[in-house]
């Protein structure tokens, strides 16, 4: 009989905001978000506790061309608000799929989402609810990758799973360099020293310091999330 015991009991899933666009040029594609939710549901059904951080690149980034000339901190707050919109969209898609989900925000928007309270988030996870951490770290000049590392460490996740548009970490950006090759595994030190652009150095460094491994994989590859959670070789593992 096949062993269906997941390798990880608690994970932090970082979802690329841009992945929510599907084939669109901007925003949230309802069918795509529904498909992503089904991938998450398959893992939740295994009893895995799931914290989620969603990026905002499908709506706004503080460093995007659209923010040129803006005060950087102001633009970054707009980016954080974009992640709140994505989080609300994801919560609603989860509701449709019958998943019990809570959103907690690092910025106070009390009429819309509850504030981030670590103990409460952990309690929700223990109760089998998915918790979406919105508004990144709540601070400008950071990214949602760093928020994923931070929340992952705070909730005691065993791994950060970075679900993105590419199927792992390459020697160079595979969207720009057709000759780039993929790593099965790479150490934090090597990922940082090579300056690999798939994730920012702050996120890599925080995970390294907290001995929190990262697995980068494609959210568009059916079953990939579940394979990572089962401990199978999928995407790229970043290890200490
Ligand atoms: N060495 C590399 N290996 C893999 N991907 C890379 C590399 N360098 C740059 N990239 C790019 O990094 C992107 C992954 O980052 P992702 O889109 O998840 O970014 P993000 O800023 O976290 O997203 P968002 O803002 O949309 O949430 C890939 O789409 C890929 O093109
Ligand atoms: O802690 C954070 C997280 C995010 N931001 C801003 O939001 C956008 C979108 O996040 P991505 O990680 O790029 O998807 C980001 O460009 C920042 O402008 C932030 O300021 N602090």
Automatic annotation (TrEMBL):
It is found in: Cytoplasm. Pathway: Pyrimidine metabolism; CTP biosynthesis via de novo pathway; UDP from UMP (UMPK route): step 1/1. It holds the Pfam family AA_kinase. InterPro entries: AceGlu_kinase-like_sf (IPR036393), Asp/Glu/Uridylate_kinase (IPR001048), Uridylate_kinase (IPR011817), Uridylate_kinase_bac (IPR015963). It catalyses: UMP + ATP = UDP + ADP. It comes from the Bacteria. Residues 9-217 form the Aspartate/glutamate/uridylate kinase domain. Inhibited by UTP. Catalyzes the reversible phosphorylation of UMP to UDP. NCBIfam families: pyrH_bact. This is Uridylate kinase.
């Amino acid at each position: 009989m096949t062993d269906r015991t997941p390798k990880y009991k608690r994970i932090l899933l970082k979802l690329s905001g841009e992945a929510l666009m599907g084939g669109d040029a901007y925003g949230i594609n309802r069918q795509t978000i529904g498909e992503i939710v089904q991938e998450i549901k398959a893992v939740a059904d295994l009893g895995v506790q799931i914290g989620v951080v969603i990026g905002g690149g499908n709506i706004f980034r503080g460093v995007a061309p659209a923010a040129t000339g803006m005060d950087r901190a102001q633009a970054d707050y707009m980016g954080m608000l974009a992640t709140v919109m994505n989080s609300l969209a994801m919560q609603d898609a989860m509701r449709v799929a019958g998943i019990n989900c809570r959103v907690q925000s690092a910025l106070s928007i009390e009429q819309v989402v509850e504030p981030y309270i670590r103990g409460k988030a952990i309690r929700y996870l223990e109760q089998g609810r998915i918790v979406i951490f919105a508004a990144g770290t709540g601070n400008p000049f950071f990214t949602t990758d760093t928020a994923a590392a931070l929340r992952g460490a705070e909730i005691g996740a065993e791994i950060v799973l970075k679900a993105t548009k590419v199927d792992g970490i390459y020697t160079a950006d595979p969207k720009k360099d057709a000759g780039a090759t993929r790593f099965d595994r790479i150490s934090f030190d090597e990922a940082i020293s090579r300056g690999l652009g798939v994730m920012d150095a702050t996120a890599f460094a925080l995970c390294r310091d907290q001995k929190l491994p990262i697995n980068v994989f494609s959210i568009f590859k059916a079953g990939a999330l579940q394979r990572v959670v089962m401990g199978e070789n999928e995407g790229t593992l970043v290890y200490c």
